[in-house]
């Protein structure tokens, strides 16, 4: 039983790690791009890592074809929905970032700073 738990954890970590490393490389290439794109990549990392770990463990368990198909369908649908929700939630961060950038630009151009009505995040307030 302990050996099984160790193998499950190992396979899940390998799948998630490989998926995460691929996305880290993408994030480094996109580091000078918009915050929206960076947030999308971060969301994709989380979703891909969970999907890869779950699928690798499912494949290693040698499930029947039907069971593996069910796990694949459930994980795929959950991945799509999770990514969509993360992107929608990330829009508020992007909008707040844009509002703060506009206020900062006005400070440089006009010498006045009017902070956004609501702080986008605690770090940007």
UniProtKB/TrEMBL annotation:
Species: Streptomyces coacervatus
Keyword vocabulary terms for this entry: Membrane, Transmembrane, Transmembrane helix
UniProt keyword annotation of Membrane present: yes
Membrane spanning stretches: 6-25, 37-62, 68-89
Lineage: Bacteria, Bacillati, Actinomycetota, Actinomycetes, Kitasatosporales
UniProt name for this protein: Uncharacterized protein
